[in-house]
Each structure stands twice: as C-alpha cells, then as structure tokens.
Amino acid sequence: MKKYALLPLLLLACACLFDSPRTLPEHFALPQSTIARYWHSMLEHRHLSALQCFLHATGEGVERMLPLPDLVELRVRDFRVADRGRGQVDVAYKVEYRVAMGDSLEHFETGDRLSLTHTGWKIDRPLLLAYDRR
C-alpha cells in the first residue's frame, strides 16, 4: 500500500523534469549570438558549423557555400533588431573586416531574418538590404 502512495509523487517529479524550460545553447540564445557564430564559423572556414546557424540547412549545402578569403580580422557590430512577432526578428548589422595587417578596416551593412526554434535563434533567410522590413 505504501508503494502506491508514492506513485503520484514520482509521476509529479517526472512530469516536472520533462516540463521544465530548456536552456538554449549560448551561441543560439540571442539573434545576435547566432549571427556572430555564423560569421566566426565562416572566418575559420568551418562551413558545417556555419550551416547549423540556418533554419532549413542540410549537410549537402556545404559544397555550395562560398568560402571567405583569408582575413586577419572580422567582426560584426551595431546590431539593430526589429521584432516581427510570432518568434521572428529582422536584424541589421555591420560586418567589419581587414584582409591584411596593413590594410584599413573595411565594412558593409547587411541583415538577416531569424526565427526562434526549440534549439534557439536560427537564420531563416538573409535580407537583401539591411533596411528590408517586409
């Protein structure tokens, strides 16, 4: 009889374990961290890791990715996040890079649309213009 009295408590404990909120991996916890991971992976020519930043990526996409040239510096900054609702954001940002140590720092602006998934923020698609808010 005592065994059966503990059964509801055991079931409740199991339910709490499975129902607890999941911690997102640090590199996908924010839209900005997903974008930074993508560019860092591309800088290091780790294309499979870069593909993991995309929502609908498959391993076959690695062959179609264009590698970045060897750079001595690359950073992403000046993030501007626009909430689109329903777990989507548009993020505009600046990519700064230096090809060689004596070169000046160059930059361009770009953007991505990201979606929140159960594994974190993933790039849904690149935006053609940093100011595309459709």
How many helices?
Answer: 3
What best-fitting shape do the alpha-carbon axes yield? Answer: globular
Radius of gyration: 21 Å
List the helices and strands in order: HHHEEEE
State the CATH class: Alpha Beta
Helical amount = 25-40%
The CATH architecture: Roll
Q: Decide which structural class fits the backbone.
A: alpha+beta
| Strand count | 4
Query: What is the fold named in CATH at topology level?
Result: Nuclear Transport Factor 2, Chain: A
Largest sheet: 4 strands, antiparallel
Low-confidence stretches: 130-134
Q: Report strand %.
A: 25-35%
Oligomer: single chain
From the N-terminal CA to the C-terminal CA, the straight-line distance is 63 Å
The average pLDDT score comes to: 84
The domain count comes to 1
Strand adjacency order, main sheet: 1-2-3-4
Account of the protein in words:
- By secondary structure, the chain is an alpha+beta fold.
- It has a single domain (26-127), classed as Nuclear Transport Factor 2, Chain: A.
- The chain is 27% helix and 33% strand.
- It has a 4-stranded antiparallel sheet, with helices on one face.
- A hairpin with a 2-residue loop joins β3 (106-117) and β4 (120-127).
